[in-house]
Amino acid sequence: MTTPAIIWQDRSTICPDRIKQKIEDRINTQHSSYSKWYIFLVDELSETVNQEITSLAKNEKENAACLVLFRTKPGEDTLHLLHLPINGLVSLHTAASQTELVIADIAAYGCFIEGNLHYLICNYLDKNHWSKKRIRHLKLDRHKPYSILTHVEHEILQSILEGKSNTDIANKFHFAQSTVSVKINKVLQKINAFDRTEAVRKAIQFGWVHSVR
Fold first, then answer.
1. Which residues are CB-contacts of 181 (< 8 A; sequence separation ≥ 6)?
2. Measuring CA to CA, which residue among 211, 111, 213, 126 is closest to residue 161?
3. Worst-scoring range by mean pLDDT, 123-132, 141-150, 160-169?
4. What distance in Å separates the CA atoms of residue 159 and residue 138, rounded to the nearest whole number?
């Protein structure tokens, strides 16, 4: 397996060397068709940063992956980047804590986005294409998943749809962090999903989800 080139675009110095090394090690051991990985580290979006990302994403002719890491969770002001051939929009915390998942998803599916962006994307599409009335949240149908999921697993999947973190779920249901991880893995296993992103996609694909306006 040829080792891909990894090019860091770090204008912020927000990423410790140990995390950079962890990401590089995972990229180097992950089977992927990408010959290059461009990784942008962004403290906050600015016109200059936007231009740099746009220029690279549009002009890079080789088989390259482009991952953008933010100091905090990417918000609504980052959604315009999804119009570009970018493979990932992720917070530094997620990249550090879920390195294997982030790199594996990009290698396998060409995409990984921060959990909270799922809801923001739905609102963005709704606002710009479908209706003037915004989606307040995505809701699982109360009856359809129950042939597969238990009541607790239904609530866990609902929390995933809302972009809740493991900590948020633990606090909401008074579970230990380890219990939350076990229950999420059980949900993913039951619906044959590789990760949270695919779980959201499959729930929508199965017709389990409707939007509340």
1. 166
2. 211
3. 123-132
4. 10
Return phi, psi of residue 211, to 5°: -95, 140
Rounded to whole angstroms, the Cα distance separating 43 from 68 reads 11
Tokens of 167: 């900590």
The residue type of 94 is T
Q: 3-class DSSP state for residue 36?
A: strand
List C-alpha distances in Å: 91 to 127, 135, 138. 25, 24, 23
Q: Give me the residues paired with residue 32 across strands.
A: none
Signed CA dihedral, 145, 146, 150, 156: sign only:
positive
Q: What is the pLDDT of residues 23-54, one digit of tens each?
A: 999 999 988 888 889 998 888 777 777 787 77
Token pair for 206: 């199965």
For residue 213, what pLDDT is reported?
A: 63
User: CA of 167: how far to CAs of 44, 112, 158, 172, 180, in Å?
Assistant: 25, 20, 15, 9, 8
On whether the CB atoms of residues 30 and 104 are closer than 8 A, the answer is yes
